[in-house]
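Subject: for your reference before the review

Hello V.,

The reviewers asked for a structural picture of the protein, and I figured it would be easier to keep everything in one thread rather than splitting it across files. Below is the amino acid sequence we used in the manuscript, unchanged from the supplementary table.
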Amino acid sequence: MQLFLRKAHLFQKASLRMSMLTLVLVLLNTTLSLGQSGDPLEVATLDKVVEYALAHQPNVQQALIDEEITDKAIKGKLADWYPQVNFTYNYQRFIDLQASVIGGNVIRFGVNNTSSAQFSASQAVFNRDVLLASSTASQVRSQAGLNTSRSKIDVVVNVTKAFYDALAMMQQIEVSEESIVRLERSLKDAQSRYNSGVSDKTDYKRATILLTNAKASLKTNQELLKYKQEYLKTLMGYPLDQNLPVQYDPLLMEEEIMLDTTQQVNYADHIDFQIMQSQKSLQEANVNYSRWAFLPSVSLFGNYNLNYQNNNFSDLYNTTYPFSFVGVTLGLPLLQGGKRLVKIQEANLSNGRLDLGLKNLKSAINTEYTRALASYKSNLGLYQAQKDNVELAEEVYDIIQLQYQSGVKTYLEVTIAESDLRTTRINYYNALYMVLASKMDVLKALGQINY
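And here is what came back from the structure prediction:
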């Protein structure tokens, strides 16, 4: 007995160790899976950011799940075309047998124990529900895929714009930092000139005010950058506690601003038009479905039954009384109060409503393209003007700075030139990213962003 208890105790300890080991392995696997799904980017270029967003953005993931759900639902509907086989078992114990009076005598019928086992099979030959499922399966799958594509396109456009917005703020911070360096150097020059008696303290104090304002502006932009980076992470599905090392090349981006503005809208390329066309096709299938209500439904069936009867339960299953049959069922509704005609009219009206929706969508797409193209052209003109202004502002600042040091210009003119240079550079980078963002709107309106 002691030996048995000792073995049982050892077995229990071994089982506990195996359970703990299994739990550790499961937790480790889960941790690794989570880590792989949210690995931070080493270099966050635009292509990497978009690629990451397409793989991790919740809206895209939901669209992919919806696509899988649609596929499973279609398979469930198509399963009705296959033979349906069922099994039914029944047992009954009669407390009192059925009685009937015959010739003045009470006669009881039946036995105390009855049981049956039934195998039934059916096969749909024609049924408008399964016919609709089989005829529209590919179209429903296509529509689910189009919805996923639209989610991806929206993510790509929004993430790209947010990326450009964050870059614009980073450039403003860089411009502010360079401006602070120049202002600190200018402050030292003004202080030296004041100490040497060349100028009064007005220049020194004005330089101090400008430097303080520049530092405050830098602090504001740094805080705004934090928000813009968090917003970009949210759109990407990126871990909020991880750093996003954004990398960019302004010169390379300047090469990407050009766009053929002579292109015409092809409605068939736009994702929203494709989705509505898919809805139109499915609605036409619904019209046919309503018409099929006048057709009969046909199915085949067969049953095989095993019956058992005996007064003694112990002998119930000793003797079997089988019987079987096959047949065909034809169902044809003859009169439904005009319901089928009303359903056909309703389906046709819905079909006509979609025609009007397609017409309205064409106008909306054309308006969207016109607005996006106008925004692109205006931003492009602004960008080209600001690009020229940057060179002029740098040249003006250098000249006035030299003239101030030579005593020809006042410090007020230096501050004006410094302000013009900072504003012009900020406007230049803002215009660059605005034209890139508006280019995305044009490409979206043309239906040239495909995923």
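For the response letter, the relevant points are probably these. Confidence is low (pLDDT under 50) at residues 1-37. The chain has one domain: 41-82+127-296+336-446.

Happy to draft the paragraph if you're swamped.

O.
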